[in-house]
Amino acid sequence: MTPARRVLVIGGGLAGITAALDCADAGAAVTLVEVRRRLGGAAYSFEREGMTFDNGQHVFLRCCTAYRALLGRLGSERHVRIQPRLEIPVLKPGARPVVLRRGRLPAPLHLAGALVRYPHLSLAQRLRAALAARALGRLDASDAALDKETLGEWLSRHRQGPEEVGALWDLIALPTLNLPAASASLLLGAFVLQTGLLSSADAGDIGFHCGTLAETICEPAADALEQAGVDARLGWRAEGVQRHGNSFVVAGPEGQLTGDAVIVAVPHTRAAALLEPLLPASAPAWAGLGSSPIINLHVVYDRRVCEHPFLAGVGTPVQYVFERGDAAHAPAGCQYLAVSLSGAEREMAMSVRALRERYLPALEELLPGARAARVLQFRVTREHAATFRASPGSAARRPAAGTSLPGLALAGAWTDTGWPATLEGAVRSGHAAAAAVLQALELGHRAAPAPDSAPFAASARAPSA
To answer: Measured between alpha carbons, how far is residue 192 from residues 38, 88, 133, 417 in Å?
Structure first.
């Protein structure tokens, strides 16, 4: 009997998990190594004072077909829910709450009513915003020239000033691109709008994790990998990748692993360091993708202060707020709100005390009930390099899954999926990397078919849309 071809996967995030499952389904003998003592990569949970906190607030959309399929594979559907139709409560200090809700008309008319009634813009501003949205929807999202300017520059040419950008466009750009419109690539901005909001009426319905990330991703992924026969080695640090003849060797303090193929599913800076000796012409360029940070503030009040399951802020430093008390097992009568701050370069340099002094009063402006409440816990989680920097020029630096060395593939939301750095992009990258090495190994792909190639959905890790 011919021995099974061996595939080594470096990295236990969503991309690595997906790639490992695909390769195992195709009959390969798979070993996955992960430097952390857990799976999930940048999506994880931690415990403090009897509560379970997620490091970030990851959402997805109905059109995130690859991520939703992975949840099905993991048996995690019960830990998520998707809105029956898109609804975003928008709060502004001193103003009545507004709900942006899609209508029942087909796309793109499904959003017309919400825009026409949006009170945070004047009637003239709403009309100009509608014209800009129509023009943005008509751009060719495959045109690389769009990656030469920012979404903000394009919006400015279409009569969208700072007020329109702050009250409308950054509600979309920040959670999906992890940058404000002023800094984000027009290419990715058009991608987000067209597929996440305009491809179909229900494409933008938001999906939430009702359970913790540990319950939804990390723990079921460990079970799924074991059932698939994947040898998952946690706490195993890959320090180098070499090629010996037709084989690859991954070296680390724990020893060496040899395989017929390798999938490197780690962040771009780490991938560049691992693979520069093998790919000296391309790996150094990956570091030029840069990074963009995300901060999450975890605020536990001694009473209920917010009636919305989540909300967006306008005219305030607060971006998005999520009610997470049930998932975190907050004490009875208390409420836990997670504040997600994308593109948080300024906040990354602030101390916990400074963040508390800035954001607790901002929450009180939006949520009057918070003014009389006592804060029981205030925690900060920081992801310094949460995503690659989705600025102009990033498209040219994102590599394809396959490399110049047959059997060596790349995975991760930073690779050229065409999507921003999201849960959906990470899973799609894992499928692409698995397909590349399975083709090189001449193994039939018996896994479920990859999702269609339609552009973006959103997970911010805030997205991660």
So the answer is: 31, 17, 12, 13
